[in-house]
Amino acid sequence: MTEPTAVALDNATVAFRLADGRVYTAVEQANLSVAHGEFVAIVGPTGCGKSTLLNVAAGLLKPAAGTARIFDKPLAGLNRDAGYLFQADALFPWKTAIDNIAIGLEIRGTPRAEALERAHKWLASVGLGAFANRYPHMLSGGQRKRVGLAQVLIRDPKILLMDEPFGPLDAQTRQIMGNLLLELWTADRKAVLFVTHDLEEAIALADRVVIMSAGPSARIIGDWRIALPRPRDISEIRMEKDFHALHREIWSVLKDEVMKGYEQSSQAGAA
Ligand SMILES: Nc1ncnc2c1ncn2[C@@H]1O[C@H](COP(=O)(O)OP(=O)(O)OP(=O)(O)O)[C@@H](O)[C@H]1O
């Protein structure tokens, strides 16, 4: 039996009403799918609608036209199968690392002792076993991301929605986090939808890279299968010939859209 598609957006159009009453169509007729266990990255120019598509998959935004289906069922309300990791930290500043991780289970009614035991395992799997009692302000940006990842994964979502999760980190920490993400994903293949503006990061991580055009009315204009071998080290894979060939091919499509994106966003009243 074939597995149901984890995320399927069919002809999804998303529009926003602006303060002056005009309607801004951010995304038009986007078709996007993420298969069970597949890692898909969305790349596109700034402001094209990457987060908007992710928010549709999360059930935070309803398309004006088209449909969103999760495991072959129409999405109504929040996507309860998904865990969401944003660019900004979502940690409670008044809770320690361990309590930040355990809270997701405690909210669901898991007894505290059991929640803590599982949280310690997750803290160890993100390499922070010795930092259980640190508050978020006592952790580096990369360490906070690790806690954030554990906080999402402990709830065992079937789908991971990631919106530039490593955006604020320095280049080296980004690569370390990328490798950690791949290691955890390989152990338990969840469907991943990963938004990034960094084409190299997208190719290094994903099974498929999807490219969006510049907005308004952004569309999906390319979909590449990334047949690079796994397991991957995301620093080393960037040295490979096949990686360069893919990068060249995808960038040839993306670069015009990036330029259009900058022009659009610099025009008065663009959005
Ligand atoms: N609530 C809103 N009301 C009006 N316009 C919005 C709203 N949310 C997003 N937009 C517009 O929709 C477009 C897409 O926004 P979105 O945040 O999805 O882009 P993005 O590709 O994720 O951008 P970036 O790469 O800069 O993070 C942008 O032009 C943005 O200004």
Outline of the structure:
β7, α5 and β8 form a beta-alpha-beta unit.
Jot down its keywords:
glycosyltransferase; globular; 7 helices; ATP-binding; 271 residues; 4-stranded antiparallel sheet; 6-stranded mixed sheet; alpha/beta; binds adenosine-5'-triphosphate; Rossmann fold; single chain; 23% strand; 36% helix
Q: Provide the CATH superfamily of the domain at 1-81 and 188-271.
A: P-loop containing nucleotide triphosphate hydrolases
Treating each run of at least 4 consecutive H or I residues as one helix, how many helices? Answer: 7
Q: List the strand order in the largest sheet.
A: 6-7-8-3-9-10
* CATH class value of the domain at 1-81 and 188-271: Alpha Beta
Please give the largest β-sheet.
6 strands, mixed
Helix content: 25-40%
What Rg is obtained from the alpha carbons, in whole angstroms?
Answer: 19 Å
Beta-strand content estimate: 15-25%
Cofactors, ions and other ligands in the entry: adenosine-5'-triphosphate
Question: How would you describe this protein?
Answer:
- This protein is an alpha/beta fold and about 270 residues long.
- The chain is about 35% helix and about 25% strand.
- It has a domain of about 160 residues: Rossmann fold (3-Layer(aba) Sandwich), CATH 3.40.50.300.
- The chain contains seven helices and ten strands.
- The strands form two sheets. A six-stranded mixed β-sheet has the order 6-7-8-3-9-10, sandwiched between helices. Strands 2-1-4-5 form a four-stranded antiparallel β-sheet, with helices on one face.
- A hairpin with a 2-residue loop joins strand 4 and strand 5.
- Helix 2 packs parallel to helix 4, helix 3 packs across helix 4 and helix 6 crosses helix 7.
- The structure holds adenosine-5'-triphosphate.
- Adenosine-5'-triphosphate binds next to strand 2 and helix 1.
